[in-house]
Each structure stands twice: as structure tokens, then as C-alpha cells.
Design goal:
The chain has 307 residues and is of the alpha+beta class. The protein contains eight helices and nine strands. It has an eight-stranded antiparallel beta barrel. Strand 2 and strand 3 form a beta hairpin. Helix 2 runs parallel beside helix 5, helix 4 packs antiparallel against helix 7 and helix 5 runs antiparallel to helix 6. The radius of gyration is 21 Å and the shape is globular. The protein starts with 6 loop residues before the first helix and ends in a 28-residue tail after the last strand.
Length: 307
């Protein structure tokens, strides 16, 4: 087994994190701050192999979103989340540009449904087509919505997806299960909603804060020969900047052909081109995922292999 590196060695040789910071327009990375202000988090992270692999992986991504998502799938842990939160957000050991303009997040869509009934979302939906390759196009995507309120003005969303490892790295996939809490603006008529958003969510994912607005642009309840669907657009931001995308929910793993004309029409009314959407692979072939249940907490010494 490879000897455990010292904390100082781990921090000073973190394989690309400074490059990662530079590529993301971060002003500087104060390595000393990692120890002086986030000592416990840094010690916990760099004293186990998954932490070192996780930071090395993120450094090599240089901010590319789909690459970073694979890193979290492979090496994510509470220790990594805590370290990122402490060093980037809480204590600015890695400084990011101030006063980033996030106003685009609040520019809505004229075509958003005005009287959306959130109860119609409760249950299981498949993401069938997506617009943003960095956020929408993961395999085997399904979302399950539940609510604890009579009017469904708040929804809990369980997110299931697979993240593929590139074939050149050995192939395979990781199963991911995430949760988000949605507040439905459309169900709160007495609350100001200048952007016309249907719902919004905020919180922390992978240790960093995000804010996101959702807009329901089109839907079918299954009547008139049009299979059930929801056309969703979203706009949000993290410390990495603004992002946006769109996708189509359906009750089947593949968007039914009979729904496509209605989806296309709703997208066009919102200024979106459905021809730019790509199908999501929900075939979900059988096989063993790459998830390591033993190392799931980030403490397995078996992960020292290939460090």
C-alpha cells in the first residue's frame, strides 16, 4: 500500500487545482488558507485516497462541467463537499470574481404556462430529450416528484441518472441519486414573481451553492391523442457562472412520436428550436455500476490502489 502522504505534501501537490482555478478566472488560490481556515476539512480530505483522487480529477477538468460531474460520480464524498464549501465559498481560499452579473437568470419566457397545476407533476417522469450537453444529456434519467402540501406548492424531487466513464478510461457507469426541493411560484398567487418562473430551487450540490429557475413551457395531460409531456426550460447560476438549458419530460423512457408536434410548437413559442434537442439514452442496459459501496464514505483504504 502506498504510504499516506503528509498534509503539507497533499496540499502543495494537488495536481492541477491551481490550473483549475486559473482557467475558471479565479484570481488566486491561497494554499495556506486551506490549512489555516479549513484545516479540519483539508486534513479529512487529503488523508484518504478518494479525496486526493477527487481534487486531482477536478484539476484536470479545468472547469469543464461534464468532466467535473464524472469526477464527483467517481470520487464524491462528504469530505470533498465540505472542503469545496469551506475553501471556495466560506473562506475564499480560492477567490472568484466578484459582482458577476446573474440577471439573465431572471429573464423569463413569454410562453411559460400561467396557471400551471403542480399536482400534475407528482409521480415519475423520464427526461427524454435535452438541449444543454453539459447538464441535460446523462443516460437513464428519471425524476420522481412528491409533495407534503395539499396544493403541491412545494415539491421534493428525487433525481436518478447514470454518468458514463469514457471508453478510453475503461467504460462503465456510475449510478447517481440526488435530491432537490422545489418551491412552486405558480401556486403562490400572492407572491411577487416578475420573471414569471413556474418554480425555483436553491441549495448546495457538490459543496457549492446554486440557484435555478424553472419554466414550464408546454404540456399535455394525455388528452386529444397527445401523450403526456412537460417541456421545461431552466436558468441558473453557480460560482462558475450562469447556465441554462431545456428538456422534455414524458411518462415513457422515449418521447412518443405523437407528442413531438406539440412539443415543437411549444418550444417555438418560447423562442427555442426543437431540432437542437437531442434524445437521452434511457435504455439502461443491465450491468454492474462502478459505484464502490465500500468506499462510498471516502474512507476505504482499497482506494489507495493506482493513486
Amino acid at each position: 500500500m502506498t504510504p499516506l502522504p503528509s498534509l503539507a505534501d497533499g496540499v502543495n501537490n494537488y495536481d492541477g487545482f491551481a490550473d483549475y482555478a486559473k482557467e475558471n478566472q479565479m484570481e488566486k488560490s491561497d494554499v495556506g488558507c486551506f490549512v489555516s481556515k479549513c484545516g479540519d476539512q483539508t486534513k479529512n480530505l487529503f488523508s484518504n485516497p478518494r479525496g486526493i483522487k477527487g481534487i486531482s480529477c477536478l484539476g484536470r477538468c479545468k472547469g469543464e462541467q461534464s468532466c467535473a460531474t464524472r469526477c464527483f460520480a467517481a470520487y464524491g464524498s462528504k469530505d470533498l463537499n465540505s472542503w469545496l464549501s469551506c475553501t471556495i465559498e466560506d473562506n475564499e481560499c480560492v477567490k472568484v470574481p466578484k459582482n458577476v452579473d446573474n440577471s439573465a437568470e431572471n429573464i423569463g419566457y413569454d410562453g411559460a404556462i400561467k396557471n400551471f397545476n403542480p399536482k400534475s407533476l407528482v409521480g415519475k417522469w423520464y427526461k427524454t430529450t435535452g438541449l444543454n450537453p453539459d447538464y441535460d444529456m446523462f443516460d437513464c434519467q428519471s425524476n420522481v416528484f412528491t409533495t407534503g402540501t395539499k396544493d403541491a406548492s412545494e415539491l421534493d424531487m428525487d433525481i436518478f441518472l447514470r454518468i458514463s466513464q469514457p471508453k478510453e478510461d475503461g467504460g462503465g457507469y456510475w449510478n447517481n441519486n440526488l435530491q432537490e426541493h422545489m418551491v412552486v411560484d405558480a401556486a403562490q398567487k400572492d407572491v411577487s414573481n416578475p420573471s414569471g418562473r413556474t418554480m425555483h430551487t436553491a441549495g448546495k450540490m457538490y459543496g457549492l451553492t446554486f440557484d435555478e429557475n424553472w419554466y414550464i413551457l408546454g404540456q399535455s395531460d394525455g388528452s386529444n391523442g397527445i401523450p403526456e409531456f412537460k417541456l421545461v426550460a431552466y436558468k441558473g447560476h453557480t460560482l462558475q457562472g450562469n447556465y441554462e438549458g431545456s428538456f422534455v419530460y414524458a411518462k415513457e423512457p422515449t418521447l412518443p412520436a405523437a407528442a413531438i408536434p406539440a412539443v415543437r410548437e411549444a418550444a417555438a413559442k418560447a423562442g427555442l428550436n426543437f431540432d437542437k434537442y437531442k434524445p437521452i439514452n434511457n435504455s439502461c442496459p443491465a450491468g454492474e455500476p462502478l459505484n464502490d459501496s465500500i468506499a462510498g464514505t471516502g474512507t476505504s483504504t482499497s482506494d489507495w490502489k493506482d493513486l
